[in-house]
Each structure stands twice: as C-alpha cells, then as structure tokens.
Design a protein that fits this description.
The chain has 18 helices and two strands. The chain is mainly alpha-helical.
Length: 497
C-alpha cells in the first residue's frame, strides 16, 4: 500500500482552535528535548571519572559518547515513522519511560560493556522520542508567530543543551558521582511522561502495514561501519586494510539503503522528503553543524582540564557563556524569522560560528581563557543560536502531513549522525596531528602539552571547514530568503500526535 493511500484513524477529535494548554505542552516538550540533547554531552566532563571507575581504555572511551549519538542518529528515521503510525503523544510518552529505564541501567553500570550497551539503549529510546517532540511543536502551534516563538525555544534548547550538559556534568561529577550524570534523567523523564499525558493533546495517526525494517537495518549498520572506520583510522592509519575495508563496507551498505528506499512500498526515508531544495539544504547544513560541534566540545574539555588544569566543575562553568550565547541567538532568530526568512539568518549565524571556530585554531599552551577562549565561545554560540531556529523551521517547510514525522526525525538524525561522524573524524585528525608534532618536537620541554594543543587546533581547523561548508550550502540551496507564506504553512494541517 502506498503512503498516499494510508487511511487515518483518530486517537481523539482534532480541535480546530488553538490548544489552551499549548504553552504548558511546550514546557513539557522542551524539558524532554533538553534531556535528550544534554545527555549527549553531560558525560563528557564525567568521562575521566567513569573511565577510571570502569577501567575503560583510552581508545574505547569515545564510545561512551558515540554509542549514544550513533544509536540515536541511525534509528531516528525509524523513530519518526513509528511516531507517524502509532501517534506522536503515545510514542513521546513511551520514549520517556524507556529513556528513564535505560538511564537507570547506565547509571548503575558495573562494567564497560554494560555502560556502552545502556548508552546505546538510551540513544534508541531518544530516537523515537525526539521526532515526536519536534512534530508536536509544529502541530500544537497553529499561529505563525507563536510557532516561531516555539521554534525559538526549541532552537535554544537544541543548541544550548550541549553546553548546559557540560555544566551539569561538572557539578554532578564533583559534588556527587559520575553516575548521577545518568541517573538524573530518571526523575526528569518520569515527571515529563506524567505531565505529557495531562497537557499534550492527542490527534490523528496514520495506519501502516509495515515499518521498512530492511531500511532500518541497513541505515543503522551503514552508519555504524562508517563511524567505526573513522575511529579505527586513529590507531591503524587511513591506509590500513581494516580502515579501508570498514569504510568500503559502509559505502556498500549505505548504497543498499538508498536502493531499498527507492523501491520500498513504505520507505523509511521517502526521497521526496530530502530532494526538496530548501529541506535538503537544511538537512545538509544540519549534518555539517553536528559534525563540527561535539568534537569541538570534547577538545575544549580536554584543553580546560589537561592544559589549563581546571577541575570538573570549573570546566563545566567555563562552558556557561556558550549557553547564554545560544539562548540570545535563538531569541534574535525567533523574532526575525517571520520577517527576513531563514536564509539570511542561517548564513549570518554560520558565518559568525565559522569565524569563532577559526579563532580557536590560534590557541596555544600559554593561551588564557578570558582572551583566547571566551570571545570565540560567545561568537560561536551566538551564531549557532541564530542558525538552529531557521534550520529546524526550514526542514519542515511544505512537508506533507504523513511525512511530518520523518521530516522531523531528519533534523535530529543529521545532527546526531553528524556528531558521531564528527567525533570520530576530529578525534582521528587530532590524534594524528599530535603524534606527528610529538615525533618532530620530542626533545622540547613541553612537547606533550604542545602536541596535545596542536592536535586540538587541527581539530578546530576541520570544524571551521565544516561550518564554512554549511554556510555555503545555506547560501546556495536555501531560497526562502524573505518572509514567505511557506514558513507559515509548516505542518498546519491536522497531524499525527
């Protein structure tokens, strides 16, 4: 049965008027989204403590982050379709419950394998919850200006959540335990699930006769092999047989995924969703941004602790200005979006972020936080805040109601897959650059620290190139360059909650 032939069944009558509890619903959705986003970064500051407690090797420590982002990103498309078919509020609440359980398992982990498995499980439940959350915003707010403000809240959280996670991770690690960076999710998710049942109203859902499991399997396996291949390059080298074989296998599996999607009756990712010029540009830009940012956070964390000698809590607070910049940028963007359109905001924001990232490429062993880190931190965060709001909105322009879930999922999927790939690639670049520097400066008194900082700046250089690529993509592909009626039509039709 083709998607256009699906029949719809109501969970509850779809009200034609604005939901009087829509701002309470937004608060609940925002809380859940914050939990999802910060969970990708909250363990970064806690990672050294967890690594020592569970005897995780240096080579494997990145998987504490990557297990979450990889499962999250590669399963998001399936999560978006499940939300379409089963109802978004139902899937949202179920995802919250599962996320709480997985967080408890991760916080109580007694071994490396248990922690990595629980982190992957967290990512899987986040993958069904996140697209439902974004779609709920588009269907709860039917007035264009209200929706812009709602996207402003979402954009601030999407961008600032990572920085907030770093601050929270520092506080919990220093004053409680690294385990509480994971256990804290349990009461938050439980509260959000109960509140969602009370204030988020259900609407319609689509019936389907399948979930495209071959597509889900090939997408997940393909992305896993891609991240694993980039990770192995750090230890084995780019020209090693294992690295090349893994990357080659990834290309084959992802190619198979595309073929499956073109032929499937109920595709996981309908090509019409990504081939639209504006949406495709937003998705590509989102992938580049995701690839650039999480690795940059990781390098700054090790710079603060390993070079500047900061404690876990001081490291967390060193990221606090990033949250302020994100919130400010998102507030600006949400007000200007209906007037100037997304392209002007995205190019301005990405241009600022690129300049700030280039500033970090000049860091050295004797750099000072106030002079060499903070100014760029404010510039990057302001630019990111201005970018996330129009990027999320553009990704949903003109999408059909039965594709709203998968389009919403693509916003998160590109960021999470980008984070997984970016962390692997940037870690490999940094490790290679540090090793090369150390080999040629091994007699220097500060060769170890200098090599580490040289690796970080090499990573920042790649991050700047990725943000620059996102700038070019936005300028060339996104054509909604002024207030456009399409912006007011994002998911206005009855949707599937």
């Amino acid at each position: 049965m083709a998607i256009t032939e699906y029949t719809e069944r109501a969970e509850a009558p779809e009200p034609s008027s604005a939901d009087p509890r829509r701002f309470l619903a937004l608060a609940v959705i925002a809380l859940a989204q914050l939990m999802i986003v910060l969970d990708a970064s909250v363990v970064i500051v806690a990672l050294p403590s967890a690594q020592r407690a569970l005897h995780i090797s240096t080579a494997d420590r990145q998987w504490v982050m990557t297990a979450y982002t990889l499962a999250f990103g590669s399963l998001l498309l399936l999560g978006g379709r499940i939300a379409d078919y089963l109802g978004r509020r139902r899937v949202f609440v179920g995802g919250l419950v599962g996320f709480a359980a997985a967080s408890a398992l991760a916080g109580l982990s007694q071994s490396e394998a248990m922690l990595l498995g629980a982190r992957a499980l967290q990512g899987a439940f986040a993958a069904v919850m996140a697209p439902a959350a974004l779609a709920l915003i588009t269907t709860t707010f039917i007035e264009p200006e209200e929706r812009s403000r709602a996207f402003g809240v979402y954009g601030a959280i999407a961008g600032g959540g990572a920085a907030i996670g770093l601050v929270l991770g520092g506080l919990l690690t220093q004053y409680a335990s690294w385990r509480w960076t994971l256990l804290i999710n349990v009461p938050i998710a439980a509260f959000a699930a109960v509140a969602a049942m009370r204030v988020v109203r259900p609407s319609e859902r689509v019936e389907s006769n399948g979930y495209d499991l071959p597509g889900a399997v090939t997408a997940t396996l393909g992305f896993f092999l891609l991240v694993w291949g980039f990770s192995m390059a750090a230890s084995d080298g780019w020209s090693s047989v294992r690295t090349l074989a893994t990357l080659g296998a990834s290309a084959v599996v992802l190619g198979t995924f595309v073929v499956i999607e073109l032929r499937a009756a109920n595709p996981l990712l309908p090509m019409r969703v990504i081939l639209d010029r504006n949406r495709g540009g937003a998705f590509l830009a989102s992938l580049m941004v995701g690839s650039a940012m999480l690795g940059a956070f990781l390098f700054l964390t090790y710079l603060f602790q390993g070079v500047f000698g900061y404690s876990a809590i001081k490291t967390g607070f060193a990221f606090l200005p990033f949250s302020a910049g994100i919130i400010s940028g998102a507030a600006i963007a949400s007000r200007l979006l209906p007037r100037v359109g997304p392209r002007a905001l995205m190019t301005t924001g990405l241009g600022l972020a690129t300049l700030g990232m280039l500033w970090w490429t000049q860091l050295g062993v004797h750099s000072a936080y106030a002079l060499h880190v903070l100014p760029a931190e404010l510039i990057v965060s302001l630019g990111m805040g201005m970018t996330f709001v129009p990027m999320s909105s553009t990704a949903l322009i003109g999408v059909a109601p039965h594709d709203a879930g998968v389009a919403s999922a693509m916003v998160n999927a590109t960021q999470q897959v980008g984070s997984s790939l970016g962390t692997a690639v940037l870690n490999t670049v940094a490790a290679t650059a540090a090793a090369t520097y150390l080999a040629t400066h091994m007699h220097s008194a500060q060769s170890g620290l200098s090599a580490a900082v040289h690796g970080y700046t090499a990573g920042f250089t790649v991050s700047a190139c990725l943000l620059g690529a996102a700038f070019v993509i936005s300028a060339l592909l996104i054509r909604v360059d002024k207030a456009d009626p399409a912006l007011a039509e994002v998911a206005l039709e009855p949707a599937l909650s």
